[in-house]
Amino acid sequence: MKSGMQQNVLNEKNVQIMCDSPFIIKLYETYNGTQSLYFLLEPALGGLFGKEGHAKFYVAGVVNAFEHLHGKKIIFRDLKPENLLLTELGHIKLTDMGLAKVVVGKTYTTCGTPDYFAPEMIASAGHTMAVDWRSECVLSFELMAGHPPFESAHPMQIYQKVNKGITKVNFPNKMKGVVEDLVKNLCKKEPADRLPMRKGGAGNVRKHAWFNTFEWEKYDNGNMPSPYKPQVRGA
Fold first, then answer.
1. Which pLDDT belongs to residue 46?
2. Is 20 one of the catalytic residues?
3. Among 1, 10, 168, 220, which one is least packed by beta carbons within 10 Å?
């Protein structure tokens, strides 16, 4: 209340309650206390774990989560590893709708994590759901390489690297080939040129060569075994 954030909390609740996807943390109920507001959320007790097979499994979950959100005109705007949780079975869940927003057309608020900013957000030129797919590019790179592509100690240096573009980034040897092609196609400077923003939508990612042997139907139904099952000590 002191910082005038009441509407932000209501917006987070309203967006979260709109979501009904196995790839997004569920909001079951909200409560009022004397000093606090409470969200009763679905528990996800695992943690991320990395290798190419794991990265592919997690990136696919984000594709499905974004497809669900964008179908409801919701832009997420805060993708990063910290906002991805694993269930005790190792299935991925997107969480934290604090910056998510229902948008028809463009919105102009600059928000999120600098490493994951899109050029249009830095320029305050207005952004659409294309910023989410741009952040998917950064996530894919980070899960594979162990660090984001535009990292720097200072935000202004990050912004300079973002504006120079993904073609100026050195890809590690393990990312050469099809995964490099996917990242570069998600990371196009022009929002309309990003792979899922072209005709075919998110299906363009599903059909990409990196997912050539990936069984999407099994994955979508929750029947694909996860490549990593967390060791959960207890509920």
1. 75
2. no
3. 1
Q: Which residues of the chain have pLDDT under 50?
A: none
**What is the value of pTM for the model shown?**
0.90
Among residues 147, 59, 71, 152, the alpha carbon closest in space to that of 114 is found at 152
Give me the domains of the chain, ranges plus CATH numbers: 44-220 (1.10.510.10)
- Whose tokens are 């909200």? That residue is 30
DSSP-assigned letters across all residues of the chain: -TT--HHHHHHHHHHHHH---TTBPPEEEEEE-SS-EEEEE---------SHHHHHHHHHHHHHHHHHHHHTTEE----SGGGEEE-TT--EEE---TT-EE-SS-B----S-GGG--HHHHTTS-B-THHHHHHHHHHHHHHHHSS-TT--SSHHHHHHHHHH-GGGSPPPGGGTTHHHHHHHHHS-SSGGGSGGGSTTTTHHHHTSGGGTT--HHHHHTT-SPPS--------
- pLDDT tens figures, 54-100: 999 999 999 999 999 999 999 999 999 999 999 999 999 999 999 99
Q: Which of 78, 96, 115, 132 is catalytic?
A: 78
